[in-house]
Amino acid sequence: MGAKGKHPVHHELFRHLLMDMINDQHPLVVLERLIAGLLYHQHTFAVSNETLLRTSVENPYWQHFCGETHFSHRPPIDPSSLTRWRQRIGEEGVEWVLTETIEAAQRGKVVKRQSFDRGIVDSTAMEKAVAYPTDSRLLERGRQRLVRTCRGAGDYPEAELQP
User: Fold this and answer.
1) Roughly what angle, to the nearest 10 degrees, separates helices 49-58 and 79-107?
2) Cα-to-chain-centroid distance, residue 15
3) pTM, two decimal places
4) 92 and 34 in contact (C-beta within 8 Å)?
């Protein structure tokens, strides 16, 4: 069986599909694919704008995913452009782009519905409430445990253990 057509079949004789009319190399079309691809890449790997653009230059697969037709050794945009674009569409807009990306993957049968039943969380990138040895609170807790241990051993008089 051959590959399915790229566009849905339409039965309107005098109406044309938009994708048949536009130039896929037009700056607005390229920008739309570029930004969506870059935001997806950034969200997937939780990287800064600078790291995102540096890795996109190094990876031909990400360049292709973002709509490029030829390999480029230069970032496609300035990191501040991505920040300004994200500010313009807001958090709700970024969430919409991510949702549309996931739905497009489902429509294209690239991902199965059951893949969303269970999530995998990489906690190495998450902030944690870790008390480091330099914290005075942690040092005090260590001192208190040491005093309790010494008192339990009974080797030291009570007066010598006071701070």
Assistant:
1) 70
2) 39
3) 0.48
4) no
From its phi and psi, is residue 26 left (phi > 0), alpha (psi between -120 and 50) or beta? beta
Tokens 């958090």 sit at which residue? 91
pLDDT digits (tens, 9 = 90+) for 105-147: 888 888 888 887 877 766 666 676 765 656 777 788 888 998 8
What is 132-156 written as a DSSP string? PTTSHHHHHHHHHHHHHHHHHHT-S
The closest alpha carbon to 35, from 52, 23, 19, 16, belongs to 52
pLDDT for 6 equals 52
Region of residue 46 (left: phi > 0; alpha: psi -120 to 50; beta: else): left
Q: What does the pLDDT look like over 29-41, one tens digit per residue?
A: 777 788 888 888 8
Q: Alpha-carbon distance 39 to 34, whole Å?
A: 9
User: Which amino acid is it at 138?
Assistant: L
At residue 81 the predicted structure's pLDDT band, cuts being 50, 70 and 90, is: confident
